[in-house]
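REVIEWER CHECKLIST
Item 1: Sequence provided? yes
Item 2: Single chain? yes
Item 3: Sequence as submitted:
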Amino acid sequence: MMFVPSKCAWSPLLALMLLASCAKADASRPGEWTEARAQEDARVNALIESGRYDAALRIADSLVAAGEDDARVLAQRARSLAGLSREKEAIAAFETSLLKDYESCETHLHFATYLMRMGKTGRAETEFNEAKLFCDTARYPLIYRNLAVAAAL
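Item 4: Structure as written out by the authors:
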């Protein structure tokens, strides 16, 4: 008589194999925050901060094309467009980013300061007031200073 393992004997092994394949699939899924994605994020931010908006936009666009269309990369894309003075595209990109994550303090602040530079003080005031809802109190002096400037214009 030959021994045939029951289904129960195989289930832990099958479960382990299934779990491993799911973990591998999850790691490569667009939208997952991986070490590589964190490095790209830091790289785009550094390019924006150094005024290299064209290079930052190329990376942000490639991330979006690869399925990385989370609110953070969309906000980076918006900041890059703003730096390149592509006003309509920048505003649309900021709005799209906020639709994905309306509670982003940073996006509201970047959008509001961009609107101030564009002379759209009424809309900027709205964004600064929205930022107050989501930013920690350490950001309040910045927000109130900009609100005072907007009110004076």
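Item 5: Key structural point noted by reviewer: Residues 1 and 7 are 18 Å apart (CA to CA).
Item 6: Recommendation: ____
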